[in-house]
Amino acid sequence: MRIDSYSFGVMKVDGREYRQDLIIFPDKIRSNWWRREGHSLAIEDLGDIIEFKPELLIVGTGASGMMEIPAATKQALQNAGIQIIVQKTSQACNTFNQQAECGKKVVGAFHLTC
Fold it and tell me: What's the mean pLDDT in 82-103?
């Protein structure tokens, strides 16, 4: 999977446009991704990702970086052996593409708006 472009509220992946938050796995996309608390990322929001066991999770926190990742969520990911990179969504898209091109087992979780 490759992210073609991102602008506020819209992400294009492999030629297909998405207008809701999404999770990108190497072989599929989970669109319309909702979190228990909209601007806070709880470990319960990441069940599919933890089950998949990527080397790396890249979290796009929105255009302005409004989504927060509590320390407990970061610790749970670390305990599961998953490295996390947290960036504003525009930067996270670039990081996702770079890591995927390097052959890493990477998943991206992206907040597309604020």
Answer: 98
What does the DSSP 8-state code read for residue 111?
-
Alpha carbon distance 81, 52 (integer Å): 11
Once rounded to an integer, what is the mean pLDDT over residues 4-25? Answer: 98
DSSP the chain: --EEEEETTEEEETTEEE-S-EEE-SS-EE-S---SBTTB--GGGGHHHHHH--SEEEEE--SS---B--HHHHHHHHHTT-EEEEE-HHHHHHHHHHHHHTT--EEEEE----
**49, 57 Cβ separation under 8 angstroms:** yes
- Is the distance from CB of 96 to CB of 57 less than 8 angstroms? no
Averaged confidence pLDDT in the chain = 96
From 3.40.1230.10, 3.30.1050.10, 3.40.50.10540, 1.10.1040.50, which CATH number describes the 3-110 domain? 3.40.1230.10
